[in-house]
Predict the 3D structure of the following.
Amino acid sequence: MNVHDKGSELSRALKESDEYKALSRARRELDTDPTARDMVRDFLRKQMEMQLEIMSGKADMNEKQAALQKLYEVLAINPRARDFVALHMRFQQIIQDVYKMISDAVGEGLDPFAEKK
């Protein structure tokens, strides 16, 4: 079995998936509305910043979470923005699931500090 061939097969499967096609359509729709596109970019950027802060161990995230929730509530009024964010999150979950499957399969080999069982 050639791992690169399987990787190519996986990338084609992802690109041909209903979820990716829906996300691509939503992206094209979003691009027709500059205001919605800017709101989505701002929301996703702030969401990523918050996730990075959580991973770095910053303690008080309540204020940032509340601000992000308010931003989402405003964004959700716009159907193009709301639909894109929902589809984006759904596709990101698929990517995370695939990564977890790979990590579960070969994770031990990737961790030089793992203890033998």
Residues 79 and 114 are 47 Å apart (CA to CA). The chain has one domain: 19-103. The chain has a mean pLDDT of 89. The helical segments are 3-16, 18-30, 34-55, 62-75, 79-110.
